[in-house]
Amino acid sequence: MGGDVAAGEAAPGEVAAEGKHVSHASRTHVITHLPGDGVGPEVTEVARACVDAVAPRHDFHVDWRSCSLGGKHYLATGEVLPDAALEELRRSDAVLLGAVGTPDVPPGVLERGLLLRLRFELDLYVNLRPSKLRAGVGSAVGKHELSDLDFVIVRENTEGLYAGAGGTVHRRTEFETATEESLNTWAGVRRCVRYASQLAQARSGRLTLVHKTNVLTHAGDLWARIARDVAAEDGVELSYAHVDAACLWMVDDPRRFDVIVTDNLFGDIISDLGAALTGGLGYAASGNLNPDRTGPSIFEPVHGSAPDIAGQGLANPAGAVLSASLMLAHLGEDAAAAELDAAVSSVLAAGEPGTTGEWEKELLGQLANGGTS
Ligand code: IPM
Ligand code: MN
After folding, report:
1. In angstroms, rounded to a whole number, what is the distance separating the alpha carbons of residues 128 and 125?
2. Quick one: how far is CA 239 from the chain centroid?
3. pTM for the complete prediction?
4. DSSP single-letter state for residue 181
5. Rounded Cα distance, 63 and 352, in Å
6. How do residues 139-174 score in pLDDT, each as one tens digit?
7. How far apart are the C-alpha atoms of 155 and 222, rounded to whole Å?
8. Would you say the CB of residue 115 lies under 6 angstroms from ligand 1?
9. What residue's CA is closest to ligand 1, atom 10?
């Protein structure tokens, strides 16, 4: 991979190997690091260091590749996602993404051209977003016990209103009409609900469908029928909440939720609420998953590139480290994943560090003794 490229340097839009490591680990995972823009590089550096810190103890080795795509790269080259770069990404076992976006790039260019295109091309049909309240974070809602707020949102990630169906006619006249159509296929909904239902089996056995079936009757009927069938097949207990009521309950009575399955846009919105309830976007992790493993999955903190604080050493790397934890779990490294997760909790419980550097030092200190002190 990247045969002509010097180790450590990604040529424009390409994925480069980062040099040869001699390793005696029994498993190697090829992971592409796509740091992107703003705080993306800072927070994913910490996540990488955490992964490398636990790998030897768990007998695996990461063959890191790097990919330079993002806003800066686009401004310099005009490239958003060249086909060659996509093909290189396909060859990794996973991708660790920071954040993409710079203020000078018009809205939609990187969102549709890079992030959504990757989700679609790599068939990342589940977006997994845990919301877990940890000791030491200021929850938006003071009254909750830690055990009250620990749910996972399974967001459908390739269809719905994100599919790109629709258009504009009579542009720039008073009859201008813009449509965005929500696409919901039986197969697409079913595979996402199946993933959620199996996750519910592995957790509490409780699954909640969040939708708006009283208004979106066509898509709602499809989702409700599929959820009923899949939950019955998997023997999980299914409940239902309209998306507006779900927002209220997430704040007011989050114990109702364990695994939530929902469509793309609802999942986008309620996962930001879940993040706000569990300390803020800085702590929110996500996995864009291809559960069928026909290609790599992409793991990224939910926060964006935060250009206002970039380069100042102030970014909170917790969301990136927790995303790396989801990545390790996806790669089958469950024990290592649990150590990263526990390290974040331990650092927080001891008092939240104020800088990215302090975070890194504290995390690596925790990981030196197995994630919990
Ligand atoms: C997210 C983001 C993206 C989304 C944007 C940047 C395309 O908000 O990952 O939640 O809407 O999915
Ligand atoms: Mn979002």
Report:
1. 10
2. 25
3. 0.92
4. P
5. 31
6. 666 778 889 999 999 999 999 999 999 999 999 999
7. 16
8. yes
9. 268
